[in-house]
Amino acid sequence: MLESGRKLKDSEETTEAASSKGHMFSRHHLSKFRSMAWEAYKKKPISYWILLVLSGGAMLVAFPASSLLSRVYYADGGKSKWIISWVAAAGWPLPALLLVPMYLFWKITPTPLTWKLFVSYVFLGFLSAADNLMYAWAYAYLPASTASLLASSSLVFSVLFGYLIVKNKLNSSMINAVVIITAAMAIIALDSKSDRYSNISDSQYTMGFIWDILGSALHGLIFALSELIFIKLVGRISFHVVLEQQVMVSLFAFLFTTIGVIINNDFQGMKSEARSFNHGETAYYMVLIWSAVTFQLGVLGATAVLYLASTVLAGVLNAIRVPLTSIAAVVLLSDPMSGFKILALIITFWGFGSYIFGNYSLSKASTDEVSPKPSEEP
């Protein structure tokens, strides 16, 4: 009995010691994280952190708002696919306004517009116009939460086209992300009947699903081609160079979609749409105006986060944006949210996490390769 009691006491002491060590380990890592965060904070001026917070906030607010407004347009009586795609590019003067002070006051020289670069911008503008039109078809027939989840597959195509066109490196985590997000899209496809609106037919839902995936594929191709242009034609990547590309591509996308709107006589149809809009003419035009503003603000925010911080942080915020859009659509627009869609949402978030980890690993490996090794000489 005494021996048994002694063993029990020793076991309790061992458990307490292990628990104490665990707490000390956790406190040590928490303290280390705090010190690292504080050191990182002190390295940058307060203006940098304010700009980073505003940029991240723009991504997390503007992109979901743009998606919801597109769905509101169709839910309240809008019918034109060309109008929504035109609105997505109509905000191109916003980034142009940011470039003006850079040229005038910061003495930044505009990137020379060579013939090859001009043709590249025209081609990307055409692809962007087509991409916006595909997404417009998707939002016409799909709930905003479903359309947003499907659009996250653009990450899959960005990885694939980046590997094929730009020769970007891949690792097992990034390949895992491709497989996981593809599986999430398959789950949504299998559960398509649970979130289809009553006024949308099976064929229309299928069409919206297909256009969303095609738009995501084209978005991934545009991303890869943009990176290729920076490497082959521009030779550098900086904040103002990316803004220049955003302005030029959006401008040409705006011109292409304007031609489509004119041919389709949709400018004339805007007046009748506004009159029959559920909440009145003012609400109709406000939806279109804020759709244009929020889309460009989202792109600007993503661009700023990318160059103020890293692609990893931009990926993290983009991952957070997907569930935010879905939740906002359920709360504000009463989107149907089945168990399968929730599962797809969780799997998509997991896929983004795998991609972010893989991207971080590649970035860290690249940094370690270029960092100078310590000299072995005494």
Automatic annotation (TrEMBL):
It comes from Aquilegia coerulea. Pfam families: PUNUT. One of its GO terms (cellular component) is membrane. The keyword Transport applies. It is found in: Membrane. The lineage of its organism: Eukaryota, Viridiplantae, Streptophyta, Embryophyta, Tracheophyta. The chain crosses the membrane at residues 46-63, 83-106, 118-140, 146-166, 173-190, 210-235, 247-263, 283-309, 316-334, 340-358. Signal peptide: none annotated. It comes from the Eukaryota. Residues 1-21 are annotated as: Disordered. The keyword Membrane applies. One of its GO terms (molecular function) is purine nucleobase transmembrane transporter activity. Its main location: membrane. Keywords: Membrane, Transmembrane, Transmembrane helix, Transport. Belongs to the purine permeases (TC 2.A.7.14) family. This is Probable purine permease. Residues 1-12 have a biased composition (Basic and acidic residues).
